[in-house]
Automatic annotation (TrEMBL), chain A:
<dbReference type="GO" id="GO:0048038">
    <property type="term" value="F:quinone binding"/>
</dbReference>
<feature type="transmembrane region" description="Helical">
    <location>
        <begin position="6"/>
        <end position="23"/>
    </location>
</feature>
<keyword id="KW-0472">Membrane</keyword>
<dbReference type="GO" id="GO:0050136">
    <property type="term" value="F:NADH dehydrogenase (quinone) (non-electrogenic) activity"/>
</dbReference>
<comment type="subunit">
    <text>NDH-1 is composed of 14 different subunits. Subunits NuoA, H, J, K, L, M, N constitute the membrane sector of the complex.</text>
</comment>
<keyword id="KW-0813">Transport</keyword>
<dbReference type="InterPro" id="IPR039428">
    <property type="entry name" value="NUOK/Mnh_C1-like"/>
</dbReference>
<dbReference type="GO" id="GO:0042773">
    <property type="term" value="P:ATP synthesis coupled electron transport"/>
</dbReference>
<keyword id="KW-0812">Transmembrane</keyword>
<keyword id="KW-1003">Cell membrane</keyword>
<dbReference type="GO" id="GO:0005886">
    <property type="term" value="C:plasma membrane"/>
</dbReference>
<feature type="transmembrane region" description="Helical">
    <location>
        <begin position="30"/>
        <end position="48"/>
    </location>
</feature>
<feature type="transmembrane region" description="Helical">
    <location>
        <begin position="60"/>
        <end position="81"/>
    </location>
</feature>
<keyword id="KW-1133">Transmembrane helix</keyword>
<dbReference type="GO" id="GO:0030964">
    <property type="term" value="C:NADH dehydrogenase complex"/>
</dbReference>
<comment type="function">
    <text>NDH-1 shuttles electrons from NADH, via FMN and iron-sulfur (Fe-S) centers, to quinones in the respiratory chain. The immediate electron acceptor for the enzyme in this species is believed to be a menaquinone. Couples the redox reaction to proton translocation (for every two electrons transferred, four hydrogen ions are translocated across the cytoplasmic membrane), and thus conserves the redox energy in a proton gradient.</text>
</comment>
<dbReference type="InterPro" id="IPR001133">
    <property type="entry name" value="NADH_UbQ_OxRdtase_chain4L/K"/>
</dbReference>
Length: 98, 163
């Protein structure tokens, strides 16, 4: 027997830490890193709900989320590198909009 | 609490602690290395929850590829080795929203799942996951491959010298 409450609470805390990091960090690479934390928290919730419902669908969705995260981080880092080449600075506060 | 609960709690503590280090360290490279610890701990949680295939994919893709990519980006943007001084914004709003959402969700889950006990499920082996993907979820799988191709082309176009 296991208690699904433990991984659920862990995932909730990881998600909160990810939100905190996205808002707190100024460096664009660190912001991407914290987004990965949030995506991982969601993966943990999906796997845990699989355990609760005795199904496999959640794990399929975890694989989909991992693929999307890989695509996101690839394009995101290309954008960050382009920004660095244009401005020599990747502080998200200093990006001029418009 | 059974043995598996104790292990889940211990690994969860490692994950949360290293995640806190990711968002609080002043060394850019160390943030990436702490993220490896967090992702590894989450992979161990997957193993404890019998999601075997997903755990190994997590180790391969996240720890193997994504973190290496992030560390490459850290080096390519000429991050200083050692302490940086301008990594953080003021802590107030971030702490409010982050702690609010994290602790709020944690409280909600703790209340909803407080008395639930489940038997460990059958192992999520590659065979079971593969049967589910290629049985019920074949169309999203194919769409996802197109998305990956688009992301690949997009990343190449973005990082070309002059476009």
């Amino acid at each position: 027997m296991l208690q699904p409450v433990i991984p659920m609470v862990t995932a909730a805390l990881l998600f909160g830490i990810g939100v905190f990091g996205v808002l707190r960090r100024r460096n664009a690479v660190l912001v991407l890193l914290c987004v990965e934390l949030m995506l991982n928290a969601v993966n943990l919730i999906l796997v845990t709900s699989d355990v609760v419902r005795a199904q496999i669908t959640g794990q399929v969705f975890v694989l989909f989320v991992i693929v999307i995260a890989a695509a996101e981080v690839g394009v995101g880092l290309a954008l960050v590198l382009r920004l660095f080449r244009l401005r020599a600075n990747i502080n998200v506060d200093d990006v001029e909009l418009g | 609490m059974t043995a598996i609960d104790v292990m889940l709690s211990a690994v969860g503590l490692v994950a949360v602690g290293s995640a806190l280090a990711v968002v609080s360290t002043q060394h850019l490279v160390r943030a990436g290395l702490w993220l490896v610890v967090t992702l590894g701990a989450v992979a161990v949680e997957f193993l404890l929850l019998r999601a075997e295939f997903v755990a190994w994919v997590q180790v391969l893709i996240y720890v193997g590829a994504v973190v290496v990519l992030l560390l490459f980006a850290v080096m390519l943007t000429r991050a200083p080795i050692g302490r940086s001084t301008d990594l953080d914004r003021p802590i107030g709003p971030a702490l409010l929203i982050g702690a609010g959402s994290g602790l709020g969700l944690a409280g909600l889950f703790a209340w909803v799942f407080r008395d639930m006990r489940v038997n460990p499920p059958p192992t999520g082996s590659a065979q079971r996951v593969g049967e589910a993907i290629f049985g019920d979820w074949v169309l999203p799988f194919e769409v996802l491959s197109v998305l990956l191709l688009a992301a690949l082309v997009g990343a190449i176009v973005l990082s070309k010298k002059d476009t």
